[in-house]
Amino acid sequence: MLREQTRPDFSVGKGSLDGRIRDEGTATERFSLDDAKIIYNFPFNDLLFQAQSVHRENFDPNAVQISRLLSIKTGGCAEDCGYCSQSARSPTGLKASRLMMVEKVLAEASKAKAEGASRYCMGAAWRSPKDRDMDTLVAMVEGVKALGLETCMTLGMLSPDQAATLAGAGLDYYNHNIDTSEEFYPQVITTRTFADRLETLANVRDAGMKVCAGGILGMGETTDDRISMLVTLANLPEPPESVPINMLIPIPGSRLANAEPVDPIEFVRTIALARILMPRTHVRLSAGRTQMSDEMQALCFFAGANSIFSGDTLLTAENPGEDHDAALFRRLGLKPMDMGLSQ
Ligand code: SF4
């Protein structure tokens, strides 16, 4: 049964949606695409009021979970994701590197912990991990966990065996973004399908790990594509525990270098919809924060975002540094989320 406190009150806004919310006996409400469109198009103040109401029923409204992301293997990727600086198919000028040594990863993770991170994410630019790399990956997971950090990896597609191996090593989260709607997806990536993405997410879940899956706004997709992406995530057998929402950083040389920037209000609306559709998920402001004003980030936090990446870089992209984030947290009265509270 649904937990009563997670049911949004839709008496505010354009009529009541409450009767349309399907109770399928799962942990969160399920919404149809049409319902999600109605919510997305609420007057802005109503939408944010609902999102903030749902948010504070499920989380400390002033706590933000802080993750750190390290590129453990950069560039030279065989995939053709149109937004990415690391695809070998795009002339982005990025120099490829080999898989990092375990000792170096652990030294970076120790620093991140000292700087307040509670989750350490390790990303490799691969279509999928090679079996010969699995022992090294396992040693990284075990070492980072031993430091007292939550662990996350993003390594591309995972087979059921690879997922089981990483889960056995204690990997808490696996990130694999669906990127956009199923309809728009073929315009962004052609080397693996939307169904491939969902299969990896199912393998991760079946292995007992938590799921981190989100997408990117500003790739030329429509508003309906953004809504559809969130509905897909919310309607997974179990919604992801983390949903990163990225704003495209146009990379010179990549196929999406000249994509139209997303309207900031539309971005905030998307965050609010993610919060309402997935009440107990950590919604993360991910790549693109350097292009957001402090005011836009503040609106995103009000709309229900409660996770960020800290540090100067995100894989190969710029990120606001620690000092800027600390100042923003002070101005907004935000605090880092305790690990014990993070899901
Ligand atoms: S997003 Fe990942 S899979 Fe796609 S090209 Fe970049 S590194 Fe490769």
Give the arrangement of secondary structure elements.
Layout: H1 33-40, H2 44-58, E1 63-73, H3 102-114, E2 119-124, H4 134-146, E3 150-154, H5 160-169, E4 173-175, H6 194-206, E5 210-212, E6 215-217, H7 223-234, E7 242-247, H8 264-277, E8 282-285, H9 294-302, E9 307-310, E10 313-314, E11 317-318, H10 322-332, E12 335-336
Parallel strand pairs: 1-2, 1-9, 1-12, 2-3, 3-4, 4-5, 6-7, 7-8, 8-9
Antiparallel strand pairs: 10-11
Helix pairs in contact: 1-7, 2-8, 3-4, 4-5, 5-6, 7-8, 8-9
Brief sketch in words of this structure:
The protein has 343 residues and is α/β, with parallel strands linked by helices. It is 34% helix and 15% strand. Strands 1, 2, 3, 4, 5, 6, 7, 8, 9 and 12 form a ten-stranded parallel beta sheet that branches. Strands 10-11 form a two-stranded antiparallel sheet.
Strand residues, percent: 5-15%
Tell me the major beta sheet. 10 strands, parallel
The total of helices stands at 10
What is the global morphology? globular
Order of helices and strands: HHEHEHEHEHEEHEHEHEEEHE
Bound molecules: iron/sulfur cluster
Structural class computed from helices and strand pairing: alpha/beta
Helix coverage percent of residues? Answer: 25-40%
The total count of strands amounts to 12
Query: In angstroms, what separates the terminal alpha carbons?
Result: 20 Å
pLDDT average, as an integer?
Answer: 87
Spans where pLDDT lies below 50 across 5 or more residues: 1-8, 11-16, 18-29
Radius of gyration: 19 Å
